[in-house]
From TrEMBL:
Protein name (database record): SUEL-type lectin domain-containing protein
Organism lineage string: Eukaryota, Metazoa, Chordata, Craniata, Vertebrata
Entries under InterPro entries matching the protein: Lectin_gal-bd_dom (IPR000922), Lectin_gal-bd_sf (IPR043159), TPC11 (IPR021773)
Pfam families tied to this protein: Foie-gras_1 (PF11817), SUEL_Lectin (PF02140)
PANTHER family reported for this sequence: FOIE GRAS, TRAFFICKING PROTEIN PARTICLE COMPLEX SUBUNIT 11
Keywords tagged on the record: Hemagglutinin, Lectin, Repeat
Protein's organism: Knipowitschia caucasica
Phosphoprotein among keywords: no
Amino acid sequence: MLFSKNTKAPLTTDSMSSSSYSNTVVIMDVIRRTPCHPWWRFILIVIILSLETQLISSAPDFTKHLHSILRNHTAFACENHILSIVCPPRTSVSVLSAFYGRHEVIPNLCPSVPNNTVEENIHCTSAVAIEKVKSECQDRQSCHVSVLSLFLGGDPCPLTTKFLQVSYKCQPQHHRTRLVCENGRLKLLCKNSTVLAIYSATFGHMLHGSPSCPPEAGSHSDMECMSSTALRKVSRRCHGKENCSLVADVMTFGNPCFPGTRKHLRVSFACVPRYLLEDVGFVSRDPFMIPDYTHDFPEKVVLYFVSGICAGLVVLEIHYNSSRSDGGYFEVITQGEGRTEEKPSGWLVLSGNFPLSFAAARWPLADRVPISFKVLPGDHEYPKCRTKRTSYEWYIPKGILKTGWMNKHLNLVPALVVLFYELDWEDPQWKEKQSECATKVEIVRTSLQGRNTKVAVVLIQKKTPLPPGEDLVASERASALCNACDLSGKSLFVLPHTDHLVGYIIRLENAFYEHSQTYYYTEIRRVKSHKEFLNKTTHQLLFVRHQFKIAFFSELKQDTQNALKYYRTAYSLIHELRAHETNMLEIKTMAGFINYKICRLCFQHNTPLDAIAQFRKHIDLCKKKIGSAELAFEHAAWMSKQFQSFGELFDEAIKLGLTAIQTQNPGFYYQQAACYSQDRKQQAHQLCQTEIIYPTTDPLSGTLDFYGQRSWRQGHQSIDPPDTEKEKTGILALQIKEKGVPHSELIIALLSNAVAQFKKYKCPRMKSHLMVQMGEEYYHAKDYTKALKLLDYVMCDYRTEKWWGLLTAILTTALRCAYLMASVKDYIIYCMELLGRASTLKEEQKLKIEKNLTKVLQNEVPDAELECDPSSVSAAKSLWGDRMALAGANEVTIEVQDYIPFIQCKAKFLSPSFHVDQPIQLQVFLKADGPNPVSFSKLAVSLSNQEYNQWCIIESSSQNTMSLVPGKTKCYNFSFVAKTEDVGKKIEMTGIELLLGSVRGRCVFLTWRGAGGDIASPHEALQASRSSRRWGRSLETQEQDWDNVTLQHSTMIISRIPKISVQLSHQPPVLNNEMYCLNVTIRSQEEGVAKDVKLTAGLKPGQDANLSQTTHVALEGSKICEDSAAALIPDILLGDLNPDQKLEKGIFVRCSTTGPRIFLFHVAYFVDTTVEGRQIVCKCHKDEIVTVETVVPFEVSVKFVSTKLEPLERVSMDIPFLLMTDVISSSPWPILLSSSSLELFSLTSTSPDMKSQLEQTVLETGEGASECFCLCCPPVIDNNNAIATGQYSIAWRR
């Protein structure tokens, strides 16, 4: 597989890990006869690699489609919305769960209505929601569900905002599931030319277990644990194949659970035609690999071998580096090799005709990590093998582990040397080339003399080999070549130029891997064989060394379980050594390195609890092994490195799928690392002298033979140092080196990592606490800008939470930063806060701050702050001088509401509303908290209507100086007259401004938003709503209890109180359709003339629309008003009213329907008045409302009877009959029936004159009157049986 440096690596299960070492395979020169110029080689590789990169970038991304049908999906929607679910083509919805209701776990999902005063139920759910959702969505490609209680089985919690959340999978249309218990073999088989499409795979233990795999006695069956790599490993084994078989054991999938937990493997799959895979453009058997395009360039065999296998050469990152940037002693503590973040990978490198610097791809193997490769020339000299020791009887070890041993087995001594040679079986120069190849092999063997490293040969051929046994020439020559090179048949390989190049490469790599495994197995056995020669009296160090070597070789062999076992043994043995000052550093160095390996392997095995337990044990065992008191900072640095390294391991494990929690995350370990770095810094300042000179002869020069030893006494293991003077010189050199270490930078980096972790896991207080420490470290590092930025950010939280002691400490540091930066505005702000009520400083400290603040206000340079760095003070004074000399920069505006200043301000209107003929009054209360009185030059209140601002300003003068006495509340009153056009409008305070200083010095404008207050008293605005009983109460004295002062930032301008009376007289109820009279009497009680009096009368607006259509108002009642008459007559002119004058007006109303009605009588007028000496014209009005009921005056009934007074249902033509009408009064008042009439349509009357029989009849309540008419029905021309009689009318009045 090929890809360039910019190509994203394919997702593989083993692509990231925390192991560190690798198999080493060295491949020798490729021998070719054809010359090739270097520039042509360069162009060839660039072109081919570019072509490969382009091909791969266009490869279809199958992983996206596979991911969409494998993972669990979640969809949700709020109440009264639509929830939509859509799966990819040829898949269907499989509902896993459905929740309808509300739960406290996700309170911010679908928030409730802001004005809802009902307490919501956060523990409600619908039991039938899943059945409703399944009925709509199960086995469908898409569905849409209405989130309504009616549809989802009823409302589980009324008056609560609910939501629907559905968890589902998109499963193929045809899928099956197989389950096997731990250590069982799973077999999958497809028939009829179909292939396996893996849908899901899990290995571990479900929360409720599996009936097929019951848990063992005493197992942790109440916990769910799943392997994060199961799906990927099963997919690589089985995806796209017709059949596959694999074992469900921890060797294949790892152990995600506690020991003793019964696990099982569950695989969901489908046997599908290849079109299902072709639809997404990918038919590879490994859905996580990019397709192979190497067959397009078969002639570039060696290049593809380099790019396919050798690509991705990863330089081992050494955590225990030999850099001395952290101090000379730190080289001794941390130098070493082998702590890498990458998984073990050996090295394979080709030399010869093609440069390899362009290779940038890693070959992904499904079952194990790739081997790494390295290029070495054919005549490379390997490290000489020293003479093997035959006895340990008189051998005294000088140290635990040599510094070059790990590097030797990582980069110098290979497990396998492979010689690439271009040679065909039918080559005409076979003999010469065979001899040349044998010579090359012999050169390699000579260089490796004494080593167990194996040698292999790969023949690069142009033709495809025949099956074994068919090519007799090849068999014969292969045997001859093996004899000439002294090789076994398993060490000779052929790499042909064919379309199946990748397949041959994979086989080669597997063969190389097996050879390397054999080498490391041999090395482990060799080390173990030494144990019988050792004794625990003189060879304690060798026990540790040998256990470490066995663990190291096991790790290179990919046997991480045994590696962990032997590392733990080595760790136990190292703490059995007798520790003293001479060997303390060596013991801690090796213990720290072995602990790192153990923790990393525990994380790799998905047992984080074991890693945490090991690290805690390690810290407990080592934290008191301080060593030399003169080098105590070494121990603090070592402890810091331990916590930092574990935090990095923890963080890396989280990135690979481990779940962390708020109380157990990498942030705590980074924080502890920072704390020990701070201890290191403090101890270095105490122990490291500044006057001493570095020794002429450097005691720290030279390389170390063993980890953790001192360079001036290497190999010394006795308790007492061999040379006291050298010991003192070495300690002195380490102390001098320590002075040059940038401690603050180290601390800041660790704190920054901790802050990022605490922010990620939502620990705000821990994050704020560490940001304060970061700010202080920036201060010590003289980066005052960053320090001030961090401290200012954190202070907001501490002000809100009222941590006054912490806030004072932060403000003190911020004040020093502002002084050293000569930041005038910041300096003034922090001075004011430290003088305020939130400050916990002593009186003398506040006096000094107040003195400096006064100097700044007078445009003078302030005195240096206490505990400032003397080297920075002189530069700060120069900066202050420049600031004070700047012209036009003497005004500073500070919005103090975000701080807690030493001047407090509150303001309020004396009433929530004022009549327009009353002066508007407001009060501003000021209180100083400083040690001495505070003078100010100006106080101004800004209002929403800026025309009133001129009346709300007070300034000091020579006769009137304004000052505030500490602890005393002072009140300032303001009043102004509102304009008549502002009636009905609200006036608000938009801000308050206080001027400190003067134009001769520096002007500082303190501004408050609204009616004042500050961040320390947010409750004051709430108190205003509870203080209505205090309105109208004026202040009796200049002093008032500050806590009792409430804020009122707005008031309403309302109209003047009218001094007229409006009386209504009428006789209810209203009778239907009569002209009902409402008499209005208006009497003036004004002292002056009420001008332009207007009356608006009629139906009050805002009632039922039908009432306005059936109610009609008129000014005259002599005749019935038309239906077109309005329901409300506006602005009826009544003229002027003199004092005590009375005016009457009648309003007539006709109601054509019954029911209650509300009538409005609005009287408006103008009057001249005087307010505080100002003449204004006020518009006044008064409203009177009356409700009257409309009733029916009488009921009328009609009946047909014969001349014999018998009821008739039908009448006959030309036969007389009687029409009788009955009128019954329902009015509470007597009714006069003026007249009645009957107008006939089709009928005729038998009497020529039909006079009213009810004329001038008076009916009392409940009385009735009747009238009779004799009629006759004429012949009907058409056949219509129904005819119209006529219209009966009655004229009446009260």
